[in-house]
Amino acid sequence: MTDRDRLRQLIQFRYSPLLDLALSLLVIQNPERFGPPAPWEKRVLDRLPEGLLDRLHAHGQRTDLFALALELEDTTSLPTPDALRRLGDRDPELAADLLAFWEAVSPEIGARVGVLTESLQREAGLLAQTDPVSFITRFSDRVSVAGDGDALILHWGKGMRVPLEDLSRILFVPSAFSPRRLMFYRLDRTQIFFYDPMHRAAGEPEEAPESLLLGFSALADATRFKLLRLIARERLPAQEMARRLGLNESTVSRHLRLLVEAGLVGRAGQEGKFILYELAPERIDQLAAQARAYLGRDRE
């Protein structure tokens, strides 16, 4: 079996309300990373009981909600509310809070269920007719495939290489809430790709590369520019950046996640329990070159 055959066999598609629920919570809880609230976020926030987000944040410190969602879907075929009620047998408080959050989120998923399920058939049909490498890379320039298809390359920070031999499945999940064309999440031997089913293919000529849009979005904030200026001079942990700028560590961490996602910042080792971050100057140069190329000014 060739690597490309193996890649094709690994790809699966799933309509996953529970995984999408976990993603919606991630987006709502990280405005610094994902930008101003989308209309669906405002509607969901209006439906939430007071204090629920704080309780869910506390749950998230103890439990990987994406892993929990995948476990529930892998082990039961129950509808989402019933699966969450079953969770109550082992964690009543978490189950009750997730059920309350589901009540706020489910109208948004229900309004898009037709689009989400139709996209599964469409993408499965495309995969059957397309080389698997081309199929994956058409979603976004933030994912590529090494060599003949022996590993995925996820363009996050300095880049992550995911050998196919480390995976048992590559799960494509159409999302009602993805703020990116493609978002990735790794859980043991499962690589999850959330995709926006309404977005045009990344290869269409008028479409700006997602890495270009994400890079400029990351730069479009005064606080993030200050963070970049700090680590352009020296490698620093988030805690020291927060101290120098007079910010909460949690705020700095959320900004850093976007800068890492955009490839503008990378991890530079560790001192004791603190992770050091450094600027990726080559990414600044790459962004400028990408912008010139997209605008047709690269030959000047």
Automatic annotation (TrEMBL):
Keywords: DNA-binding, Transcription, Transcription regulation. The keyword Transmembrane does not apply. Residues 204-299 form the HTH arsR-type domain. SUPFAM superfamilies: Winged helix' DNA-binding domain. InterPro entries: ArsR-like_HTH, HTH_ArsR_DNA-bd_dom, Metal_resp_trans_reg, WH-like_DNA-bd_sf, WH_DNA-bd_sf. One of its GO terms (molecular function) is DNA binding. The keyword Transcription regulation applies. This is DNA-binding transcriptional ArsR family regulator. It comes from Symbiobacterium terraclitae.
